[in-house]
Amino acid sequence: MSNKTAQEALIHIMVTSSAADWKLKDVELSMIRNFCATLPVFEGFNIDTLDAISSRTVKLLGDGNGIDSILEIAKNQLPERLHETAYALAVEVAAVDISAGQEELQFLEMLGDTLEIDRLGMAAIEHSARMRYRKI
Prior knowledge:
Helix 3 (50-62) packs across helix 4 and helix 5 packs parallel to helix 7 (119-133). It contains 7 helices and no strands. The chain has helices at 3-19, 26-38, 50-62, 66-77, 83-95, 102-114, 119-133. The protein is globular and about 35 Å long. The termini are far apart. It has one domain (3-133): TerB-like (Orthogonal Bundle). By secondary structure, it is mostly helical.
């Protein structure tokens, strides 16, 4: 399993989190780009490939079992030590617009189940994101 493959799987997850409500919002896409440019898990990632990977994600989502395909990629291409990282990135993308819709929440639940993240861990990640995006 290469870093490139795992990084692409993380991008598929973030783009799917953004697209779960059928809208790819600029603020979410900007966040994904920022994560890919700054987070240690994306060290060595060629940011110039982000648009092509994102387009592949959207194409996969347009297929009959799109979300299942993304979840299968996540399960097969991410080492277990990155499962919580993947979930945290998906939550961050969903939380950036303050309120996650039902579709986003459903995707997050499916992702957590697929990656076998315990409920307490999922709750902690979600709580942390809510605190970061809370308004006065």
